[in-house]
Structure formats: C-alpha cells, structure tokens
Amino acid sequence: MKKWFKKSIIITVALLTFGLISPDHLIWEQLLDPKNPEKSLFSDTESIRHEQVSLLEKQDFKDSISIAAREQSYIKFGERIGPVIRNEFDDVIFPRIQEVINTTVSNTEPEKVVNLAITEQPSGEYHEKIFHIYNNDTRKDLIRFHVRTDKKPQEGYYFNFHYHLAKDNYAKHYALGEIYWSKNTPPKWLS
Length: 191
Known about the structure:
elongated, 2 domains
C-alpha cells in the first residue's frame, strides 16, 4: 500500500476509535513497513496528529483574533465615526487586516501561536493605535495596526490605515488603505 494511504487508515482508525484498538491488533500488523517490520507507523501518526492540531490551533487563533480585531476597530471608531465608515472599512480595509494577521500567524511557529494575544484598549483623542498583536510571555508587539487622520489640501480629511512590524523595529508604514471622511474635521476617536 502507498505510505500516505497507510497513514490515512491509521489516523482514521485512531480518531474513530479513540485509541480503543490496541497496537498489537491484526490491522496494525498488516500495516507494518514491509522493508522494516520492527518499524511501526505510530511515530509517523504522532507527527501527523501534531501537525493537524497545530493547524487547528492556528485557524482557531486566526478566527478569534479576527473577531477581536473587528471589535477593537469599532470601539476605536466610536459612535460618531463608526456608522459613517463602517461599510467601507468592512469591505476594503478589514479584509487586508485579516490577510496580514493570517500571513503572520501562518509564519509563526505552532508553539508560539498560543502565546499571541491582541490588545484590548484602542487609543482615543487623535492617537493612532487601533490594536496590537503581541507575545503574551514577552509582552513585545509583533504587529501594530494604526489609523492616522490625514488632511489633504482642497480635498479634506482621510483616515489612513496602516500597520508596523517588529521585524523592522516598527519604522516602516505598511499601507492598508484610506477612507475619505469629509472636508470637515473628524471627531476624536472613541467619541
């Protein structure tokens, strides 16, 4: 049998029986490596199971961070800015935020993903912070998501969404997009 098929059978049986079939059962004898009968495929099964758990943990983190990121963004916008920019934020900016988060999480080692967290207090007034994703053990930021208010001559005010990365010491602005406000000065964040 092909090796991937053997592994699939072992994983399926292991998951379906919750380990009730012992390794010395006839089915396991049939699935021994013919070139090396001493070698059981259980070592491969354990690594596959670990990889599957890691992928599930990463996906769970991506999902929970995505929900928290949207919530923190809406808190930042407040009741005065939020209703005006919400649709464009949901359609244009937030998918880009999700993409950055997903890429970063996918590139993070599985054992470190469980240590990642999101800040829970966006800044008010005219400060830029929406939320940061950080390592809960070291308390160091991995990604900082910000929004800045820009005034363009004869056009008006725009909200400039961007992020910073720890790998370049937060020096570079990575653009996510802009949303036009109006020619009037926007209210303070959190208002």
